[in-house]
Write a structure and sequence with these properties.
Number of strands: 33
Distance between the termini: 41 Å
Shape: globular
Number of helices: 28
Radius of gyration: 34 Å
Largest sheet: 4 strands, parallel
Oligomer: single chain
Helix content: 25-40%
Strand order of the largest sheet: 4-3-26-27
Length: 849
């Protein structure tokens, strides 16, 4: 691909504007395609004619093409164009192939980024958000995108978030929305809870203000995602990148095991643990509680309180990844209390250790250092006993404790009545005893936790709940929705929700008894907004429900979803969960929202870091469009690298793509106008005319296959090579022939999805009336695209010694005969008669001598 840039003759030094009048291109002075005149003309015409107006009742086969909706964070940068222009090109390709393609575009407008940006600028979040949306829409116009902007949604509008609240009520009715006290990541700078992806770096800092994050306990609202955990693990049939499927499986993390209670000495407390290896219970020599475990305060002895308090603070600064890392030394602190092993009777010290997580299992583990790596490291560090109670099946004796833990299944030893049993059998019998003695029960646990949706910030969807002293927690009736977010609230962060100080919002009456009540002042996580938006796109003004059920039945699930891999877990998992709930509510008839997913890469700044105004590495597409034109920017973004790859912005090849478009203009427009009569008068050789047809059909086949596979870069490379070939054939006298007309028309149509403005202009200059974007995609003839000759490798005793050009498609016997008759091969064999010859069609012949 890079060689093509050299072939286009990239000029040295500072390049002048390509719209600056005549200049020397490819060795001669020629008037240039003027993007500043032609591109705005066609955008205005498309808008006037309603060329891309979406009609859901169009009889053509439907194709719902969806790209992840952006945050309205300010100006667009080149990374946005990298995400959206290939989507537009694919939509245009689909329409030309007979589909009614629906490609809506909206804005995920609530959330912490917009609020923080507003705070920094001293403006209201709504004013800032709507200003950003207007600016981003304005910047998208030059792209020439065929998106259904009139079907877009803005999630901060009451018309949209009313239905967030409606869903909350439905979840609450089904027991899928609940409130509890729970630890959260807390940013002291922003004074808010943070989602996991908002905590960055090994030292755990807020992504917005860079303040160190700590853990804090608050009353929070949750969605019961774990109720669908088993279903969410079922991903058969999803055409998704394998790494995304793996990330989701690992995030959910299903484990079958037993919950077992350990009585605490000197009281009525019990510590419940979850274990998948009940067969090792006789080897449990200590217990470890997560620092956030509610029993830590009650079980910590006075002499250990300071040490435990210091440790808990240190642990609050560590991420889950850091806490679970096998590379760091496991540490902890002794509470001073003990428990009893209900199987062995062993006295077990109770420790606090941050390698135990409150959110997984019960937040407590039995330490089995003889058979678990982390427990082993912990025991060695603090001098705790390391009993060995499982030996390998093929060993007569127990492994040496000093040699490290034996973590596989085996045969039990020193395990009372269970000694001599295989691990699997022992687990089954021990679980029976646990349930018979009332010590616990069999259960399934998940690594994934329920979805924390509470945010103590202003800019979000209000949670439709009120609290009444007499009636308790009361949902707002549906007929009173939406609960409007007040626009006069003080939104600066103070450590509490700003809505707590807005009396007009806070004070209300109880829907049940009519007495005084107060509203819930937490707002919803913005992921709630993005967990169902594609249904609303179908009719964004539908007022009888969250979406039109008939349109949803016909148009969903989405046919193709595109977006960044950074949403592999949160957004995609929540969307899958939401869709299953909608299915159970009878609103949709499917379980998976996005059967097909493609992850595009991310364009970074030239410094290799994510584009950010604060870093000064943002590339504004407006400047590039002004200089080169939208089609050149579109083409370069699709040509510069495979779409699923990201990397630093490298503008060096932009001139090469711009020059490619100038050559297209010169060959198809100016060349045809100047030389049509001359070319038509000259007799073109039949072989040349056939070769032009073959080149045309090969181009159509190549671009068709690449477009379907999102290989835009190789599709454009094929177009570049074809234009060079077309230029040579035009100079050879083929202009004006039927083959030339076929080639020009076909090329114009395959170019149209990628570079829609110049393709439209050329199409009309070639004498056509209707828009090129309404034309059918060109067809290719398999006979014309088949290779007439191929080069096959010639091996002698398995080593490649020669290459020979032969007719394509020869069977094995004929291939061997033709190759053996070649003079170079005969010299290679030196008169030796092969004992055996093996041919592989169109690839190789191996002679065994």
């Amino acid at each position: 691909l890079f060689l093509l840039f050299f072939m286009w003759g990239v000029p040295r030094g500072a390049a002048p504007s390509l719209a600056a009048g005549p200049r020397r291109v490819f060795g001669e002075v020629t008037p240039l395609y003027d993007h500043r005149e032609i591109e705005p003309k066609w955008r205005a015409e498309w808008e006037r004619s309603g060329l891309y107006r979406f009609d859901p009742d169009d009889p053509r086969p439907k194709f719902y093409l969806l790209t992840m909706l952006p945050y309205p964070s300010g100006d667009l940068h080149i990374g946005h164009w990298y995400a959206y222009t290939p989507v537009d090109a694919y939509a245009r390709f689909l329409r030309m192939n007979g589909y009614n393609a629906f490609v809506p575009f909206g804005f995920d407008a609530f959330g912490l980024p917009a609020e923080n940006a507003a705070i920094q600028r001293g403006v209201h979040p709504r004013e800032w958000t709507m200003r950003c949306i207007a600016r981003m829409r304005e910047q998208m116009r030059p792209m020439g995108a065929s998106f259904a902007f009139d079907h877009g949604v803005v999630t901060c509008e009451p018309e949209y978030y009313k239905w967030d609240q409606w869903f909350f009520l439905k979840f609450y009715e089904r027991g899928l929305a609940y409130r509890k006290r729970a630890p959260v990541d807390w940013c002291p700078g922003c004074h808010t809870t943070l989602a996991r992806e908002q905590v960055v770096g090994e030292d755990r800092r807020c992504e917005r203000c860079d303040t160190p994050v700590v853990r804090r306990e608050l009353e929070q609202w949750f969605f019961r995602l774990t109720a669908y955990a088993d279903e969410l693990l079922e991903m058969e049939g999803l055409d998704w990148p394998e790494r995304v499927l793996t990330m989701q499986r690992n995030w959910i993390g299903r484990s079958e095991g037993v919950r077992l209670r350990f009585p605490v000495e000197g009281g009525d407390e019990e510590i419940e643990v979850f274990t998948t290896r009940l067969d090792t219970v006789y080897g449990a020599s200590f217990l470890v509680l997560a620092p956030e475990h509610p029993l830590v305060d009650r079980l910590t002895r006075p002499e250990a309180r300071d040490a435990v308090a210091d440790y808990r603070y240190t642990a609050s600064r560590r991420s889950e990844v850091q806490r679970l890392s096998t590379e760091r030394v496991q540490d902890g602190v002794f509470t001073g209390s003990f428990a009893r092993n209900p199987f062995s009777g062993r006295r077990m010290p109770i420790w606090v250790g941050d390698y135990v997580l409150l959110g997984y299992g019960t937040g407590a583990i039995m330490g089995v250092p003889g058979h678990d790596g982390r427990d082993y490291a912990f025991a060695r560090r603090y001098g705790l006993p390391i009993p060995v109670v499982v030996r390998p099946r093929d060993a007569a004796e127990a492994p040496d404790a000093d040699a490290g833990p034996f973590s596989d299944d085996g045969v039990l030893i020193d395990s009372g009545p269970y000694s001599g049993l295989p691990s699997e059998e022992a687990r089954r019998r021990m679980a029976d005893e646990v349930e018979r003695r009332g010590l616990g029960q069999r259960t399934v646990e998940y690594r994934v936790r329920d979805w924390l949706i509470s945010r103590q910030r202003y800019w979000g969807c209000p949670i439709p709940i009120v609290y009444c002293d007499g009636c308790g927690t009361v949902p707002v009736p549906e007929e009173e929705l939406p609960v409007l977010l007040p626009e006069d609230a003080e939104f600066l962060p103070t450590g509490e929700s700003p809505l707590l100080r807005n009396e007009a919002f806070l004070r209300t009456s109880c829907p049940r008894c009519g007495g005084p009540a107060r509203r819930e002042t937490d707002t919803m996580d913005t992921f709630v907004d993005s967990s169902w938006y594609w249904y609303r796109y179908l009719d964004p003004h539908y007022d009888e429900g969250p979406f039109d059920p008939e349109l949803a039945r016909r148009w969903t699930p989405v046919d193709q979803y595109t977006g960044g891999v950074e949403h592999a877990v949160m957004h995609l998992l929540y969307s899958r969960f939401f869709t299953r709930v909608l299915r159970d509510l009878g609103l949709v008839d499917h379980s998976e929202p996005f059967p097909r997913l493609f992850n595009q890469g991310i364009i970074l700044g030239a410094d290799g870091r994510r584009m950010s105004k604060s870093r000064g590495n943002v590339v504004n597409p407006d400047d590039l469009v002004e200089r080169y034109g939208a089609d050149a920017v579109r083409g370069y973004l699709m040509f510069c690298r495979p779409w699923d790859e990201g990397g630093p912005w490298q503008p060096g090849g932009m001139e090469g793509v711009a020059n490619f478009l100038q050559r297209v203009w010169r060959v198809l427009v100016e060349g045809s106008e100047e030389r049509r009569s001359e070319g038509a008068a000259r007799a073109a050789a039949a072989a040349d005319r056939r070769e032009l047809r073959r080149a045309t059909h090969r181009l159509v086949r190549k671009v068709s296959e690449d477009m379907r596979a999102f290989r835009f870069n190789t599709a454009i490379a094929a177009m570049m090579e074809f234009v060079r070939q077309l230029g040579r054939m035009g100079e050879a006298g083929l202009r004006g022939t039927p083959e030339w007309s076929e080639a020009a028309d076909a090329f114009c149509r395959v170019l149209a999805p990628v570079c829609p403005h110049i393709a439209e202009e050329i199409w009309h200059r070639l004498g056509h009336g209707e828009s090129v974007h309404l034309q059918p995609w060109p067809e290719w003839d398999p006979e014309l695209t088949a290779d007439e000759a191929v080069v096959v490798a010639v091996q002698v005793n398995g080593r490649v010694r020669e290459r020979v050009r032969v007719p394509a498609g020869l069977d094995e016997a004929e291939l061997v005969r033709v190759v053996a008759a070649d003079e170079r091969v005969r010299r290679l064999l030196s008169g030796r008669t092969p004992r055996r010859a093996v041919g592989v069609r169109d690839r190789l012949v191996n002679f065994v001598v």
